[in-house]
Write a structure and sequence with these properties.
Blueprint (H helix, E strand, L loop, with lengths): L6 H24 L2 H27 L6 H18 L4 H23 L8 H20 L9 E2 L1 H4 L3 H4 L1 H24 L1 H18 L4 H27 L1 E2 L1 H4 L3 H13 L6 H16 L5 H18 L3 H20 L1
Antiparallel strand pairs: 1-2
Helix pairs in contact: 1-8, 2-8, 2-10, 2-12, 2-13, 3-4, 3-5, 3-10, 4-10, 8-9, 8-10, 12-13, 12-15
C-alpha cells in the first residue's frame, strides 16, 4: 500500500483522473459529430490495448484471441438489448461477465498444463477465435448467421440517444483499464507477472503461484475487453460476425502495444494514439491495401529505431536532453 502512496504513483493516478474528467467534459461539449466518433474509436482502442497488455505484455504469453472477448461482449450486450428493456448498465455488466467467464474457463484449462506455454498458447487463442465465429454464427439467440440490428433497440435509450453518451462511457472504460494497468505495474501482482515473463520456472521455485496469477489476470483482461464491447455494439448499430470477430482487432491491438512500448503501463495508450491517428490520416488519402502497407512499414521502422516503443524512446531521450542542457550551462 505504501507504494501506492508514492508521489510518482499518485501523480500518474491523478493524471488519469484529471485527463478523463477534462476529456469527458470538453470533447462532448465542443466536439463535432466527427470528433465524437473519432474520439470514441480512440478510447475503445485504448481500452483494448491496455487490457491486452495487462496480461500478455506483463506475462509474455502472447494472446491472438483478444478480439474474441471484445466480440463476446458486443454480442452479449446485443442480446440484452434485443431481449429485454434493461438499462445499459445491465448490458455492460453482462458483456463484462460473459467475456470474463470465458477467459476464466479458458485460462483455468489451458494454464493447468505446462504444454500450453509460449507459442502454443498463442495458437490456442487463435483457434478460439475460429471456434467463437462458428458458435455465434450458428446460435440464433446470438446471431444465427444473419447479423443483429442493435440501433432500433437502443435509439430511444440513454446510451443510444446521443453519441456524446457513447463517448463518455468509452472514456470511462479506457480510464478503468488505465487504472488497472497502473495497479498491475506497481503492485506484487505486476511483479509476479513480470517474473513469469522473465523465467516462469524460477518464479515457481521462489514460491510465486504462477497458475493463479495467470488465470486471474487473463480473466481480468478478458473482462475489460468484454466491457469495451458493450458500447461498441451501440456504436455499430448492426453487429455481424465478420466485423466483430475479425483478426484485424487482435493484430492491431498487438501493434499498438508494441509501438507504444510494453515496458511501461501507458505504452499501449501511446501506441493506440499513434495507430488511430495514422489510420485516420490515411483514410481517403490511400487505398485500404496501401494503408495496410504503410502501417506495416511503420511498425518495422519503430521496432528497428525504437525497440522499446515510443514511450520507451521518449523516456530515454528526456534524461539525455536534460543532461545536455546541464552540460551546456
Amino acid at each position: 500500500m505504501n507504494r501506492w502512496l508514492g508521489p510518482s504513483l499518485r501523480r500518474h493516478l491523478l493524471m488519469i483522473l484529471a485527463g478523463t474528467a477534462v476529456t469527458i467534459t470538453l470533447v462532448p461539449t465542443i466536439g463535432s459529430s466527427y470528433a465524437l466518433a473519432f474520439g470514441f474509436q480512440f478510447v475503445i482502442w485504448t481500452a483494448l490495448a491496455l487490457s491486452w497488455s495487462l496480461f500478455s505484455g506483463n506475462s509474455g504469453y502472447a494472446s491472438f484471441g483478444h478480439g474474441v472477448f471484445f466480440g463476446i461482449g458486443t454480442y452479449a450486450a446485443s442480446a440484452v438489448f434485443r431481449s429485454t428493456d434493461a438499462p445499459f448498465v445491465v448490458a455492460l455488466a453482462v458483456a463484462g461477465l460473459a467475456a470474463g467467464a470465458l477467459a476464466l474457463l479458458l485460462g483455468a484449462a489451458v494454464f493447468s498444463s505446462p504444454r500450453f506455454a509460449g507459442d502454443l498458447f498463442g495458437l490456442v487463442t487463435l483457434a478460439m477465435a475460429f471456434i467463437a465465429v462458428t458458435v455465434v454464427s450458428n446460435v440464433a439467440f446470438l446471431d444465427g448467421g444473419t447479423g443483429v440490428f442493435v440501433r432500433e433497440h437502443t435509439s430511444s435509450t440513454w446510451i443510444g440517444s446521443d453519441s456524446r453518451h457513447l463517448f463518455v462511457v468509452g472514456a470511462l472504460l479506457a480510464a478503468l483499464s488505465a487504472v488497472v494497468a497502473l495497479g498491475a505495474s506497481t503492485t506484487r501482482w505486476g511483479a509476479a507477472l513480470r517474473s513469469i515473463h522473465d523465467d516462469e520456472a524460477v518464479a515457481e521455485s521462489l514460491g510465486v503461484p504462477t497458475y493463479r496469477y495467470k488465470v486471474v489476470t487473463f480473466a481480468v483482461s478478458g473482462t475489460l475487453a468484454g466491457l469495451a464491447g458493450a458500447p461498441q455494439a451501440v456504436f455499430l448499430g448492426y453487429v455481424e460476425v465478420g466485423a466483430v470477430f475479425t483478426l484485424n482487432i487482435p493484430l492491431l491491438v498487438i501493434m499498438m502495444t508494441i509501438l507504444g512500448g510494453m515496458a511501461r503501463w501507458y505504452g499501449p495508450l501511446v501506441g493506440a494514439a499513434v495507430v488511430v491517428i495514422l489510420r485516420e490520416a490515411l483514410t481517403g488519402w490511400a487505398s485500404a491495401e496501401m494503408a495496410q502497407i504503410i502501417m506495416g512499414l511503420s511498425l518495422i521502422v519503430v521496432i528497428a529505431v525504437m525497440p522499446r516503443g515510443v514511450s520507451g524512446y521518449l523516456t530515454r531521450t528526456r534524461p539525455a536532453a536534460r543532461a545536455g542542457q546541464g552540460g551546456a550551462r
